[in-house]
Amino acid sequence: MTGSSSGIGEEIAKLLAAEGATIVVHGRDEGRASAVAEAIRATGGGAEVALGDLTTDDGADAVAAAALAGGPIDILVNNAGFIGYLSWTEATAVDWAQTYNTNVISSVRMIQRLVAQMRERHWGRVIQIGGGLSQQPIAIMPHYNASLAARHNLAVSLARELKGTGVTSNVVAPGAILANEAIRAQLTHMGQSHGWGETLEEIEHNYTLAMAPNDVGRLGRPEEIAAAVAYLASPLADYVSGATIRVDGGTVRTVI
Ligand SMILES: NC(=O)c1ccc[n+]([C@@H]2O[C@H](COP(=O)([O-])OP(=O)(O)OC[C@H]3O[C@@H](n4cnc5c(N)ncnc54)[C@H](OP(=O)(O)O)[C@@H]3O)[C@@H](O)[C@H]2O)c1
Predict the structure, then answer these.
(1) 98-126: average pLDDT
(2) 65: CA distance to ligand 1 center in Å?
(3) Spans of all domains in the chain
(4) What protein family is recorded (predicted)?
(5) What is the rounded average pLDDT of the residues 16-35?
(6) Is the pLDDT of residue 178 over 70?
């Protein structure tokens, strides 16, 4: 479960643990990853920790070795990544390359290290966390939008590659998710500067109308992404491969 030391990944790890999976909690920061593993164990779940920067082959080797030390891996959720709030004029070629490495090649590194052993056991799940900006990119963060599109694309290619093996490859595509403290703080800051209200609830409502309009009328929660991952990870989804599940409140358009 890459990038499970905070945000969306943390909630996916907790829900899969509640469903009975033993989780390999991953991040680069030992304190954050250990805290999530400890929280899972405190509720009776099983959790180990694997630390490493997935932007390098050495880091990915260390994460895969730590993960496999506990036994074979049945489910790989590629969630690790970052959002760079840069415009077309700000994002340099280096920013584009670093974002592609972090958000796309990191996933590929884990696929290369973990999927062969799933194939040998004729069962497995590979789930990419993609995003709505892959299909409806906005003007800002072009390097990030493109990295999400690549995640969607590679997941379908992998599904074709895994034809007949018992291993599936799918995408969960979040809309705008109130995932962590940094996003809450940024929302509060934007809300104050745009006059969107005083409380987080008011600001979320007005932000949603202005920036992320959807049929439900609010931002998503990490638990809601976790629910879709839990479905795809389960035997209930044996007949689902190469698919995308959107969890975005019914977002049909963007306004910026
Ligand atoms: N939030 C949204 O609205 C949204 C919408 C669509 C898609 N997404 C995607 O969902 C994923 C999670 O987003 P989030 O908002 O939950 O972010 P987050 O809270 O910042 O979590 C990111 C996770 O990725 C890990 N990570 C980042 N860079 C890494 C690297 N180089 N090597 C290894 N681990 C790394 C972080 O670990 P450390 O503890 O080491 O930092 C952390 O566990 C991202 O891939 C993002 O693109 C988010």
Answers:
(1) 98
(2) 21
(3) 7-177+220-247, 178-219
(4) Belongs to the short-chain dehydrogenases/reductases (SDR) family.
(5) 98
(6) yes
